[in-house]
Amino acid sequence: MADTSVGALIKSAYPAQYYATKGENALSTLMDIWDGKTITGQTVDLLSIPAVSSLVALSAAQWALASVPSVTGQFNVFLTGSAITYPDRYYCDKNSPCAVYDMWGFSSAATSPALADLYPITADAYADRQQNPRQQYYNTTTGALADYVPPVVVVPLAERAAAEISGWVQSQINYAAAMGEVFSDAMKTYVKAISAIANGTDTTSTALPDRPTVIMS
Question: Is-contact 192 184, C-beta < 8 A?
Fold first, then answer.
């Protein structure tokens, strides 16, 4: 025999359980119709609920997300047509390091970043980032945020040699000129070796030679 109780009839008419009425461009009242309560705990008048066709259905995950207080104090679930613009609420962008967003925490509809430029993250990941600010990126393999370690920048050997000439070698040239001294043979050999690396004549060296211990003769 079919269940004709009020509860069964409501579940049949509103199978998604969680719904929201639509405002001008955002969700208005969020309701758990099966339990007869709004997201804020107010009782829903089951006799005045709009037809299911005029409501926006929410998943259980979205209902749970809507229960999380907004850090900004704002809470608006904006719509694009009849669909939630940012259905997963919390996101990070695709940069490394990345920024994180509560896309339901704006006072007006956000126009950027676009949904296609974001990765969804969990409410816990967003809260952790707020409590422990740091550089992170989205690891597409694990599907989660990970701490960002800047890549080591390798300065080409020729550039390091040129910097050595314009820096330390030039300071020694200035000192020798001021003191009326001349470079030692070891220093002359060093300058020639560094210059060859800097101008590209030496293409086989993999490291700069050590500075000489005896600079002036």
Answer: no
